[in-house]
Design brief:
Blueprint (H helix, E strand, L loop, with lengths): L1 H9 L6 H39 L4 H4 L6 H6 L5 H20 L11 H4 L9 E3 L3 E8 L11 E4 L16 E4 L7 H9 L3 E3 L2 H9 L3 E5 L4 E4 L2
Parallel strand pairs: 2-3, 3-4, 4-5
Antiparallel strand pairs: 1-5, 2-6, 6-7
Length: 224
């Protein structure tokens, strides 16, 4: 604290140490609260969009392929809602079909990398020093299958926070780093996790039926 106080004086900052800590605490709380407000609004938007799609005969899963910009288009025109929504969904499904047939390297440094590359075997980040043994489950999956399972999800972003309420025994992500949101959440909750396994290891482990994750020894074993 004395060292921090000396630095504050050196840089002519008016805060004392406790004032600086209060500022940092308030900034972090404000940032996290703004995330909650944003995601609450975003969730409500998605729910309303799903309801709109349902009113015109489209399931939520199909509606996820629509371009959200059609809401602005429909709001300012007299176009048929069902037809416009269906057209957007069809275009989204076609684009998704093309995307799923493309394979790109995790790091692109020049145009030639897209034409020819090798998928590197990444060095994953192991969170906690605990072990997890369980069946492999990938999303989308029924919620009742998540309890006691090792869940595989593509990225380590806050959108997957809901998985922690379903009793998973551990999880693996394809992308993400040691300071990613899901890595921090796993550490807070004491749930064994492998963050940023990369495409090669992720696909290899995801094809198994049962895994043994030993985070303390940085090992993942396929049991069957």
């Amino acid at each position: 604290m004395r060292a921090i106080e000396d630095l504050l004086k050196q840089h002519q900052l008016e805060h004392d140490v406790l004032g600086l800590f209060d500022f940092i605490k308030g900034a972090i709380e404000g940032r996290e609260y703004s995330k909650f407000v944003f995601t609450k609004s975003l969730s409500e938007v998605l729910n309303l969009f799903g309801q709109l799609a349902g009113e015109h005969g489209y399931a939520r899963e199909r509606a996820s392929f629509a371009d959200i910009s059609i809401i602005r288009k429909l709001y300012g025109s007299g176009d048929d809602v069902g037809f416009t929504l269906g057209q957007s969904i069809s275009e989204g499904e076609a684009a998704y079909a093309v995307t799923t047939n493309l394979c790109l390297p995790p790091l692109i440094t020049c145009p030639e990398d897209v034409v020819a590359f090798e998928l590197p075997q990444c060095e994953p980040n192991f969170v906690t020093l605990s072990k997890a043994v369980g069946p492999v489950v990938q999303l989308p999956a029924p919620h009742e299958k998540l309890h006691g399972a090792i869940l595989f999800i593509p990225s380590a972003d806050p959108g997957y926070d809901w998985i922690f309420s379903h009793g998973i025994t551990g999880f693996v992500t394809m992308y993400g780093g040691a300071n990613s949101h899901m890595a921090i959440r796993a550490g807070e909750l004491g749930i064994p996790a492998v963050i940023g396994a990369g495409e090669t290891l992720f696909n290899k482990w995801a094809s198994a039926k049962m895994l043994d994750m030993d985070c303390a020894n940085r090992l993942v074993r396929i049991l069957r």
